[in-house]
Amino acid sequence: MRKHWGSGVIWLLLFTMPFWMLAVGGYTELAARIVVLGLAAMALNFLLGFTGVLSFGHAAYFGLGAYGVGMTIKYLFPSTAAGVVIGVAAGTLAGAIIGALIVKLRGVYFAMVTIAFGQVFYFIAFRWNSVTGGDDGLTGWGRQPINLGFTTLDIQGNDKAFYYFVLALFTISVAVMALLLRGPFGRTLLAIRENERRARFLGIPIELHIWLSFVISCFFASLAGALFALVNNFTDPRFLRWDQSGTFVIMAVMGGMRSFWGPLMGATVYVLLQDYLSSHTENWMSFVGLVFVLVVLFFPRGIVGTARTRTVAEP
Amino acid sequence: MTQLILFNVFNGLVVGAFYALMALGLSLILNLTGVINFAHGGFLALGAYIAYTLLPYVGFWGALVIAPVLTALVGIVVERVLIRRLYGRDPLYSLLLTFGLAFIFEDGTRFIWGAQSVPYQIPASLTTALSPSLFFLTGYRVFMVVLVAAAVAGLFLLLTRTRLGMRIRAGTLDLETVSVLGVNVRILRNLNFGLGIYLAGLAGVLAAGMLGLQPTIGTSLIMPSFVAIIVGGLGSLPGTLLGGILIGVASGVTTVFFPSATEAVMYVMMGIVLLVLPRGLLGEEGRF
Lengths: 315, 288
Hints:
The complex is a heterodimer of chains A (about 325) and B (about 290).
Chain A: H1 2-20, H2 28-48, H3 59-76, H4 80-102, H5 107-127, H6 129-132, E1 146-147, E2 152-153, H7 159-182, H8 184-194, H9 196-201, H10 206-232, H11 242-255, H12 262-280, H13 284-298, H14 302-313
Antiparallel strand pairs in A: 1-2
Helix pairs in contact in A: 2-7, 2-10, 2-11, 2-12, 3-4, 3-5, 3-10, 4-10, 7-8, 7-10, 8-10, 11-12, 11-14, 12-13
Chain B: H1 2-33, H2 40-81, H3 91-113, H4 139-161, H5 163-173, H6 175-180, H7 185-211, H8 219-232, H9 237-257, H10 264-276
Helix pairs in contact in B: 1-4, 1-7, 1-8, 1-9, 2-3, 2-7, 2-8, 4-5, 4-7, 5-7, 8-9, 8-10, 9-10
């Protein structure tokens, strides 16, 4: 019962965000950024928190989604929907191929290989100047109004319309992830996380499940990337780089990777902190680095995890 | 054409020697403690900038000797204060913490020494080409390869012939038993970390001479070292050395035919190696 209450509050806040964001000193784009990066962190946590597999290279799929949408709108057809579909397809395909190469690895080894593979796409985006814009990123394109047949959704000019477009996709994604986790598939993933050997003895095809979880995670990460490109009307090769991957991991850990909503909270804190720091100090990188260190040393269970142990401890 | 290929093979060898030096330090730390040190590139940059600061006072050779030692001392302090708390925990946490450290290092060097890149003076005796027909064999590049070879030889001698080295190797196999046999594991891990960082510092000084100094110098070099370790096989130091040289030469040769794939080729190699030999070239079934 308590759990549903908490989710209700989160949804209420998400759906009303554009109306009070300005009053508390934010802006609508900031709200969209929170939702999008929250989705990316939740997508990563599908793998990290619920399957127990550490990917430190999710920026690759996120960035492929972003470049997919940008390059489609710029070079192929000026349609937001087509861009998102192609971006997500590119990210998911890359995830499926790389996932197949690495499902047998575990622990530190898995993490290292995901980091290294994550960089491939960064170098391609960085080097292939003529197509990707290289270091400057892909510019000269923007999100297009969506024609729904009976009406046109003006996500180009209307900030709030765009926010609700993002939130709608977020809601569908989160619902699908929650349903998957609640069903037998999700329970199997938890079994693998808790005790891989025992799960294997029960006859569960471990590699297949980890691969599926990886691909699902990449699918939603690339959707988040596609939306992030739309938020900015711009793609930056840094979307694909290892520091972006680390950012997703810290969001998930900071929020609490054993909880479904934790990564969204982590993303919120992170985005607000970064927004505040980068406008107040030149050395925001040091502060962000310090946050990483402090979270690892003092809050390894994250916001939700720490709150839960407190409430359990008090009778 | 032959000369062009020869030039790029040699160039690749220089770069590969360099990746190997950095990757060996990472590997040492990873093998003994299971910590992936993301801040390795940060230590490299620190070594380079310390050398840059010392250069006017002690000269090129002095800086080459002193800067890596000072970097190693910083490493030893960092291990005592921070890294030590991560042993035995999920690798997730060591990755995140050292990742944060990498941020702090990069920003810190930018804060102290400025964001502009600065040149690093190397002695005139090292800048001349050795022969007019083989113009690419500048003294500095040859010197780098020789120095890396000497450092690697020194490292392997240390690991096989000294008591400390034997303890490190034994600890890599079974740290608990080493501890039971009366070795102070805390000090062992501390010194081992310092040794790894020493190699990073040395790589930093050499990189400064070749590439000049900028705050991002370390972060751009850490990824190839990861690839070198994976290609060579996790847990194997000779493998790491081999991996570093291989990917260096491979990217050197690729530069001739397809310059925009210079970096991508290492990752393609890594993909192929993982497909054929999931443990890497010289890795063994076991710890990782």
